[in-house]
């Protein structure tokens, strides 16, 4: 299941993802703010109530437990703005009188802590209060003190603050939308620059993309330039192939035409043999150029399965050379891929193994390995090998060190051309069994 059913702009996609996330975070922050505000206000009120209870206890003890000696009436309401209740065995004082129905039941309680009263329906009295109750002995007389505060007014102030917090949150969300939009537009400037560069490339003003791209876009620019290099190489190879083919077949064709147009000479066996030789040269050149035209070189998105292809080739060559053994040595799995075009890898492995099969005595070994940023192909045979002073000629087009073995001397030349196009290296040395060892290394 895809996130978007149809293509959308990057700006739209990012806003669709970031805006709900921002709104959700703001909503969570607003909710947490309400909880924290409620908790902080309750703890603050409780602290004040405890201090006032301690203040009353101090004065009551100084008065020896005589409640009527305290300054009651409006004094505590004007100083503390709280309601209170004081009870002894002889007297009960509750101020203001309208709180009497609320505080009287609390005097009969045994709890020594904060008490919250919700939903009280008493005229001239608040419906939501927070009280703190404490009992203590003075001259063997039990005194109970309660100080309480109307939480309704405080909650109204909290609600107003919470509303303002919501308004500020909404303004911040709108500001966040603007910042996100500006940030996306600023981040998309390299894409606009890349688009303009591609238009210049299409019109032929430039041949490569040299835009200053951010780090995230550099692989894309490199791959596009690599694709352009590959296309230029293939075009150049096609032009070279046509020029080579035109040059190489012109002389044989002219010779054949001359023989056919010379009516004064009979078409004997010697002329027939000469014509066949010329036509054979043309056929060889056509075959060589056709094979060269199929070499792809590095291409974006192209890959090959080296182990699978190697096993297929070894099986086929084992049937072609039944008296010889072909072995594969590798730590790679069949699912492993190399960034090499499949036909190119077939040409490399096929030519090397076929050449080794021709010259080996009993055994040919193929090794496929990959290390950090490097792939290796090693083909070793147990044949007579090649002298060190002659290895420099290996891989040169048309250069053969032994004319008696069948072939045109193109195999190693084709391998060298393919390896060069991938920026790799090919080297020749003596194997452990005395034969030739060919090592190819290509950076990936």
Give a short overview:
The chain has 444 residues and is an alpha+beta fold. The chain has helices at 10-62, 75-80, 100-107, 151-187, 189-203, 218-261, 269-293, 306-320, 342-359, 411-421; strands at 83-87, 92-95, 114-117, 129-138, 141-150, 325-330, 363-371, 374-381, 425-430, 436-443.
Query: How many structurally independent domains?
Result: 3
Rg: 48 Å
CATH-assigned fold name of the largest domain: Beta-Lactamase
Q: Under the CATH scheme, which class of the largest domain? A: Alpha Beta
From the coordinates shown, what is the CATH architecture of the largest domain? 2-Layer Sandwich
Distance between the termini: 34 Å
Mean pLDDT: 78
Total E-strand runs: 10
Query: Uncertain runs with pLDDT below 50, 5 residues or more?
Result: 398-409
